[in-house]
Amino acid sequence: MKVVAAFLLAVLSGKASPTSADIKDILNSVGAETEDSMIELLLKDVKGKDVSELIAAGSEKLASVGGGGGGGVAMASAPSAGGGGGAAPAAESKKEEKKEEKEESDDDMGFSLFE
Question: Which of 23, 45, 106, 114 is deepest in the core (most CB within 10 A)?
Fold first, then answer.
């Protein structure tokens, strides 16, 4: 991924077809190790292709994969549908509270950029 990211940064900087040296310069500027075989493989695969078309094709492929994030809701609601008591709504509200707390604590990932 770092080779692809460096390639895309080179394209964004104005180079229509970045060279191996361009990619190495970008990777070296951030202290990343360069892998000549990976750089050459990428350059061979994208040679003669438009970057915006490659990104569009990749986006279509990712859209067909799906996110898979909906399973938790179905499983959380399944036990409450099968039971017949008043305990299910209480358990459901506790899960919502825990979920909200987790989302709030994940916002800063444990550190602040401005401290």
Answer: 23
DSSP 34: P
Please name the amino acid found at residue 25: D
CA angle 62, 65, 68 (to 5 degrees): 120
> How large is the angle between the packed helices 20-29 and 2-12, nearest 10 degrees?
110
Name the CATH architecture for the domain at 2-60.
Orthogonal Bundle (1.10)
Residue 6 corresponds to which tokens in the numbers above?
A: 């460096």
User: Distance between CA atoms of 75 and 71, rounded to whole angstroms?
Assistant: 6
pTM of the complete model: 0.53
Query: Where are the domains positioned within the chain?
Result: 2-60
pLDDT tens-place values along the chain, 115 residues long: 899 999 999 999 888 889 999 999 999 999 988 889 999 999 999 888 888 888 888 888 888 887 666 555 555 555 555 555 555 555 555 555 555 555 555 555 666 556 5
